[in-house]
Automatic annotation (TrEMBL):
GO terms for molecular function: hydrolase activity, hydrolyzing N-glycosyl compounds. Its EC number is 3.2.2.n1. GO terms for cellular component: cytosol. It comes from Paenibacillus kribbensis. This is Cytokinin riboside 5'-monophosphate phosphoribohydrolase.
Length: 184
């Protein structure tokens, strides 16, 4: 596993625990010698995971559509920055470059990106591990919603296992590496 795409909020959230966890994930990824692929912002959890990677000597690729240059401040310190035309190109480039995916706490954009890669895994478009860094139980309601969709017959019983979930960045890294080996 050489690179991981991280989906994360461009806002910091109301608790400092989220920013701290994002930085620790970046540091863990650097220790595990994997490249960070992410949305390219210097703000919020996105910026903090990139800062953690860079502080740990890791490689960071930011990908941002031109239309977000004013709304999301570009992270000028990344190893590589790729400008794309739109959100579809951004997500396609991030997916193409990634060997795995991790979602940090975030809002609607993070949820959309997470569910897209989950759906793609479900229908066999990719066989890449997907993880949730479940900071302070942030994703507990989402995990429960997925379980509920299984109970109600809308999701296959095997599909929740597509997610690796941990509150610890190093543990999550190990889970994703093990899953990547098993998916080969």
């Amino acid at each position: 596993m050489n690179s991981i795409c991280v989906f994360a909020g461009s806002r910091p959230g109301h608790s400092s625990v989220y920013l701290e966890a994002a930085g620790k994930l970046g540091e863990a990824m650097a220790r595990h010698h994997v490249r960070l692929v992410y949305g390219g912002s210097s703000r919020g959890l996105m910026g903090e995971v990139a800062n953690g990677m860079l502080a740990g000597g890791g490689q960071v690729t930011g990908i941002m559509p031109t239309l977000l240059f004013d709304a999301e401040i570009i992270h000028r310190g990344v190893t590589e920055f790729i400008e794309v035309a739109n959100m579809h190109e951004r997500k396609a480039a991030m997916s193409d470059m990634a060997d795995a995916f991790i979602a940090l706490p975030g809002g609607l954009g993070t949820f959309e990106e997470l569910f897209e890669v989950l759906c793609w895994a479900q229908i066999g478009i990719h066989r890449k591990p997907i993880g949730l860094l479940n900071v302070s139980g942030y994703f507990d309601p989402l995990v429960e919603m997925v379980r509920h969709s299984v109970q109600e017959g809308f999701t296959g019983a095997e599909h929740p296992s597509l997610l690796s979930i941990s509150a610890d960045p190093d543990e999550l890294m190990h889970m994703l590496k093990n899953k990547a080996e098993n998916l080969k």
